[in-house]
Amino acid sequence: MGMQRTPLLMSTLMENGARVAPHVEIVTATASGTKVLSYQQVHARAHQLAHALAAAGVKQGDRVGTFLWNDHRHLECYHAICSMGAVLHTINIRLGTADLEYIINHAEDSVIIASADLLPVLEPIASKLGCVRKVIVAVDEGFESWQTSLPEAEDYEDFITPHPGKYDWPIIDENSPLGLCYTSGTTGHPKGVEYEHRSQYLHTFAQCMTDAMSLSGTDCIMGIVPMFHAFGWGIPFAATMLGARQVLPSRYMTPDALCRLMADEQITISAGVPTIWQGVRAIYEANPDTYDFSHLQRVTCGGSAPPPSLIEWFWKTLGVEMIQGWGMTETSPLATLSRYAMKYTDKDLSDTQRFANMAKAGQVMAGIEVEIFNESFEPLPHDGKTVGEILVRGPWICAEYYNNPQPEKFHDGWLVTGDVGMIDESQYLIINDRSKDLVKSGGEWISSVDLENHIVALEGVAQACVVAVAHPKWDERPVALVVPSAAGSVEADAVIAHCAEKFAKWQLPDDVIFVDAVPLTSTGKMDKKVVRADLQAQGYALPDLRT
Amino acid sequence: MGMQRTPLLMSTLMENGARVAPHVEIVTATASGTKVLSYQQVHARAHQLAHALAAAGVKQGDRVGTFLWNDHRHLECYHAICSMGAVLHTINIRLGTADLEYIINHAEDSVIIASADLLPVLEPIASKLGCVRKVIVAVDEGFESWQTSLPEAEDYEDFITPHPGKYDWPIIDENSPLGLCYTSGTTGHPKGVEYEHRSQYLHTFAQCMTDAMSLSGTDCIMGIVPMFHAFGWGIPFAATMLGARQVLPSRYMTPDALCRLMADEQITISAGVPTIWQGVRAIYEANPDTYDFSHLQRVTCGGSAPPPSLIEWFWKTLGVEMIQGWGMTETSPLATLSRYAMKYTDKDLSDTQRFANMAKAGQVMAGIEVEIFNESFEPLPHDGKTVGEILVRGPWICAEYYNNPQPEKFHDGWLVTGDVGMIDESQYLIINDRSKDLVKSGGEWISSVDLENHIVALEGVAQACVVAVAHPKWDERPVALVVPSAAGSVEADAVIAHCAEKFAKWQLPDDVIFVDAVPLTSTGKMDKKVVRADLQAQGYALPDLRT
User: Fold this and answer.
1) Disulfide engineering: B8 pairs with which of A247, A384, B201, B334, CB 3.0-4.6 Å?
2) Calpha distance A485→A460 (Å, rounded)
3) DSSP 3-state assignment of B52?
4) How far apart are CA B547 and CA B544, in angstroms?
5) A343 in contact with B, Cβ within 8 Å
6) Which residues of B touch A21 (CB under 8 A)?
7) Hey, what's the torsion of the CAs at B329, B332, B335, B338, to 10 degrees?
8) Residue in A188, A15, A32 with CA at minimum distance from that of residue A103
9) B540, B534, B473: which is closest to B506 by C-alpha?
10) Does B394 touch chain A (CB under 8 A)?
11) B20 near A CB under 8 A
């Protein structure tokens, strides 16, 4: 044994922030402004929480659910529950009651830590959560009156206050589970991804590399992506390890509230889904002198692909680099990233070429492998033209779902992602679509994402959503839902004409439907499952099939 | 098993560069200029080398010695030998024959890959290296005539040429040994540190973090620190993983040759010991218009502490950040690093305060623990005043020496570093001295490093070396050896008067001795062992003991 066999435990990394940056602030948005705690305070509170949970009977491997916004208490849960060897189950607060009932019982959460204002969401299923022994209620300013029929309800502050601010984190196997995050599929029940200490430790290191998100202890980081969505893309772990200043938006998620917080708190890097950044762009353009984003350097965008026009707008208007990331709950979640500059030869590229690269899903992170395969699982060429199913493997990639193996989602040690795409000669991954969102027309595939990105670049369009509608002759045909921008006006013919500039005739949408909004999933992505179901429920018929 | 159990193997990381940056250059200095290969070429050559070594009987776990400069062939050895599961033993070309004989036999190197011009160094002990079955000779321009009495000598190019450019790296246990590096102690034989795949994988990830060395694929990196010294501080691994442009100085190590290479190749980051950077400063100051360092952003300085005046000079004169690193062969080697900005609160510091921090050994890297202890191994306060023995632990820290356990160098899972120092309230580690280099006078300790740093800041001084000389009354007293700068002149009285501005009377050197140069160790540090021995051999007497 030449080198020490130190297990890779998240407790080691989570202790780092308070050690190096005890007085740096962790800021949570409140009804009247912000609540500011220091790393030292949050650290002590996390240790108190661990003692309180242990006293309440939580043991190593037990699942503890959180039903919380992005706030300092959620961060305390990340620190305490993972470090004490229990399993942090971050429950998606936007799920329907059927899914909530399923996942809480499937995870067998014994304790749930819930925000007071979210208790009504759980109330209809309170009697059906037999595994839940106790609920801890996190109460914010303005939400002091709460009630619940969940058992042994106790105020979070009362729960932790009696306990000491120092807990001795156990030294456990690095392959022990640390977290559980459910991903909502298109069919069947949500599936649980069980993160482990080793996987998240490595993901945290990789995320802090210069060529990944360049996270630094000098940053002021605001994660807008919910902490219940793929562990907030790892930002709570990474930021706490670095001792960076953290700003947490809590429930105050309107574009105006987010923009004010970004400006007032001098955020240097933020992270969210494209709809967040489209909202920021819209409100900034409507009020160009209201927000000072001079400290903002980078925004990370993931969940679904940002339109290239949005990437360019952030760069040209705000001088902000939009870092596109691709991944999913099953990949911890970072798998690829795209930056303004990430190769030595990038210095020779024009801005146009750089934007083209930034619009791709990105370069695979060191340590991870991404490959495209045909239906016989033979690897396909990296020529930027051949489209295949994307598979991923590596030390922070899911090996099986929690108590629900789903072998068809795994192949010979690889995760079958369900996305289809290409890899170009520069090794950029390019996502064509979710395999379920591709439009299959006359034996050929049409990418709904490509059409959306093109349509949204048209003046007067705020958002576009392309879905397949069944057709007796062609199998499926694309239809575009378009949300006009506040100021603009746009005609259906103009949308089609704009698409014809880039796409072949058979790839053009058969119809353009103007809508006020596109339904979103619980993680802020366009919910095409709902769009398709809505069209069907309305008895929608394609133009050439109307009688 | 929630996540994939991918072993952490260096083959994964070493393959990355050629994948993402096949056409980026790897440049080696030659007698007449440079030799330029692409990543793709070096990658193929490394695979050929692995095939050739396997055909020559090298198996997993076998030690292969390298006796090479920093050049592309040495990089190929890093890639091939580690990835194929053999053990890369980087032999220090500056050792004496007794040490060379000892370590080659102790490591039981079966094959040695040696530079043609270095064969004469091995020749006197050729008959004593019974373990060595074969020597591969790397021949550079100007060194075509070589001969050796070592067995089965073969030209490197002839050795690899017949073999295919694709080797299937084995999937092995991540705790398998990957490398061997001997550290020369003050007493006894050199001790071997056996690096493992897991330890170097984690070290590489940590090294590429923004708050570590900020290494990026966009960098042009020149490692001046020899690749036989603590694996070139990990740079060959990190740079190859990232696909950064690499420039290797080979044997052309004069300050002028290094400065020309840095300027011509547009280096963005380099790494070397303080004497290298003092040499660069001296030649730059003597010829201020000769070298264009406009691309240079950072230089990493380790091995021993750079004088604060040197850090400040690089920042103020060249706009270059000198990143101080502390560690040793036993720590892979990075353990702490000091940057111009590494905490959120650093933005509130003045440049003077920042330089003071940069002059400290630095902040411990995430994942590693550094602690100071008293002689009973009780942890000491982090108050910036209390001095203790520095111990380190973590996943890239040595657990025992190779076939030479030395239990007194390890305590309860910690490495006993042999350095003494303090940790301040901001958690900066401050090295006082090697415990063996402290001057013990009248029951109190005097730091030779503190005196040296102060003396070298005096106008007219190029280098200073303070050592202890035995004294019948005080036990030991400090004596300063001073190398005057080329242009300057300085008097002994001025040196003492300058020291008196900062140090107490009893801490002042008893004598100042002017010398042309200070002897250096094989790794470029001042060799105080030799200085002390030389003084003794000359019959040196302290002023108050002269008869």
Assistant:
1) B201
2) 5
3) helix
4) 8
5) yes
6) 343-345
7) 90
8) A188
9) B473
10) yes
11) yes
Q: In this structure, which amino acid lies at residue A265? A: E
Q: What angle do CA B458, B224, A366 make, to 5 degrees?
A: 125
* Alpha-carbon span B259 to B257, nearest angstrom: 6
**How much is the CA Rg of chain B, to the nearest whole Å?**
23
Instruction: Check if A3 contacts B (Cβ < 8 Å).
Output: yes
Question: How far apart (Å, rounded) are the C-alpha atoms in residues B255 and B259?
Answer: 6
Mean pLDDT of chain A: 94
Q: Which residues of B touch A398 (CB under 8 A)?
A: 2-4
pLDDT value for A472: 85
Could you tell me if A164 and A47 are in contact, meaning their C-beta atoms sit under 8 angstroms apart?
yes
Sheet holding B245-248, edge to edge: B34-38, B25-29, B245-248, B220-223, B269-272, B298-301, B321-327, B334-338, B363-364
Structure tokens at A33: 């402004």
Please pick, among A330, A371, A389, A452, the residue that the annotation labels catalytic: A330
Whether B208 has its CB under 8 Å from any CB of chain A: the answer is yes
Instruction: Report how far residue A362's alpha carbon sits from residue B429's, in angstroms, rounded to the nearest whole number.
Output: 38
Active site residue A34: no
Separation between Cα atoms, residue B399 and residue A353, nearest integer Å? 49
Terminal CA-CA length for chain B = 78
Partners of B470 in the β-ladder:
B476
> Per-residue pLDDT tens for A470-490?
988 888 899 999 999 877 789
Q: Please give the Cα distance from B194 to A393 (Å, whole number).
A: 29
For tokens 């378009």, name the residue. Answer: A482
User: What confidence score (pLDDT) does residue B415 get?
Assistant: 97
Burial label, B376 (beta-carbon count in 10 A; 0-12, 13-18, 19+): exposed
Supply A338's token pair.
């795209």
Q: Give contacts of A 151-190 with B, CB under 8 A.
A: 175, 177
Distance CA B341, CA A217 (A): 9
Tell me, what DSSP letter sits at residue B26?
E
Is the whole-model pTM more than 0.80?
Answer: yes
For A104-108, A189-193, B433-437, B496-500, which range has the lowest pLDDT when averaged over its residues?
B433-437
Q: What is the rounded distance in angstroms from the CA atom of residue B126 to the CA atom of residue B104?
A: 11
Shortest Cα–Cα distance, B13 to chain A (Å) = 6
Q: What is the distance between the alpha carbons of residues B307 and B31, in angstroms, rounded to a whole number?
A: 33
Answer yes or no: B330 catalytic: yes
Residue B218 is among the residues annotated as catalytic for this protein: no
Which chain B residues are closer than 8 Å to A209 by Cβ? 205, 208-210
Does A547 have pLDDT greater than 90? no
Record the tokens describing residue A261, joined without a space: 């917080």
DSSP code, position B362 = B
Q: How far apart are CA B506 and CA B478, in angstroms?
A: 10
User: Which residues, at least 6 apart from A300, have a Cβ–Cβ distance to it below 8 Å?
Assistant: A213, A233, A269, A270, A271, A272, A322, A323, A324, A325
Please report the residues numbered 412 through 441 in chain B whose beta carbons come closer than 8 angstroms to any beta carbon of chain A: 413, 415, 426-427
Residues 6 or more apart whose CB falls under 8 angstroms from that of B31 comprise B140, B141, B142
Give A-chain residues touching B216 at CB under 8 angstroms. 210-211, 341-342
Closest listed residue to residue A398, CA positions, set A329, A314, A478: A329
